[in-house]
Structure of Glucose-1-phosphate adenylyltransferase:
Amino acid sequence: MIERTSGRPLARDAMAYVLAGGRGSRLMELTDRRAKPAVYFGGKSRIIDFALSNAINSGIRRIGVATQYKAHSLIRHMQRGWNFMRPERNESFDILPASQRVSENQWYEGTADAVYQNIDIIAAHAPKYMVILAGDHIYKMDYELMLQQHVNSGANVTVGCLVVPRMEATGFGVMHVDGADNITAFIEKPKDPPGIPGDEGMALASMGIYVFNTEFLFEQLRRDADDPASSRDFGGDIIPYIVKHGKAVAHRFTNSCIRAAEEIEEYWRDVGTLDAYFEANLDLTDTVPKLNLYDRDWPIWTDAVVAAPAKFVHDEDGRRGFAVSSLVSGDCIISGSEVRRSLLFTGVKIGSFSNVSEAVILPYCNIGRGAKLSKVIIDSGVRIPEGMVIGEDPVLDAQRFRVSEKGVVLVTRDMMAKL
């Protein structure tokens, strides 16, 4: 475990730069109207809130967020929920949509280009270190500890890594390291990932988190921008070049992950598929969840929606409003209906005699009387008609809605409009 050093925290001299421009196409219709980082998660948050909260909780007070794909809801969320940074305290929060700043026909062409096009904005804040973050993962991490390793090791780049079973790393960028965790090769999505020295059954997979000294990063971005063969990507171009020509060091997530007392595992999830998204949300309903959202020492900040308290009404046999092993947000009304192992986001209304089980129901949905829902994701604003049954007939569900590999049913407004 890396210990905190005394004196001024390195995070105070750092800027976090969140790459939040991706669609997340494997989430199917859930990202038809919003970017993946803007997708709702955990009852009241958005996916991007985890990276942003980690930065704030780590002590970083200068943050930039690069957006591109269908960014309106993401930008609106950040304007409402993340507007508390104060320039007079040397704090800043820059939303950086692709705006053709380099040329009139050039949007962000890759993750590295999304930083390169805003070098002048970053330079105006004069950070000594840059923490580059993906905006679409669920985890809690202290970036200060990663910064300390970066400085102590003298690395040109420090790469955040997960230890995963070797053959589960085929979908990641994988680090080949020596005994001191110096990266000797960076391989993108290898069919046969290299193992960790001394633990060959495991591999080091990139988290999409990088720490640089700012001036060195600028040099690499300018060099890469001048290379016509580059794909302008950190994982595909910048990191492999530094591995070959400089010093790249792996930072293991286990050394900086944040765990409350009852959290056993080092929790990190890429909720990039419908099944992964569904399972990660339902993880939160466990009696002792793998990810603790109640940890007041490491809060997950988000837009504080002004809403009435949740309400449960009717107490008759066959018409009793209750929820068990569920997260129920403000402005929800459970009227004479049963909710089990589910997440209800803000403003969900469930009519009498309905039965909801293993459901992720996004904001301001209305579930009609007598409906039966199981193993479903209901997108925001959907109205479920009275008596509709979803999740019991896979053939019928597949004709009307999107059904995942593991049988999770996604329902959107557009799908309902076609019925």
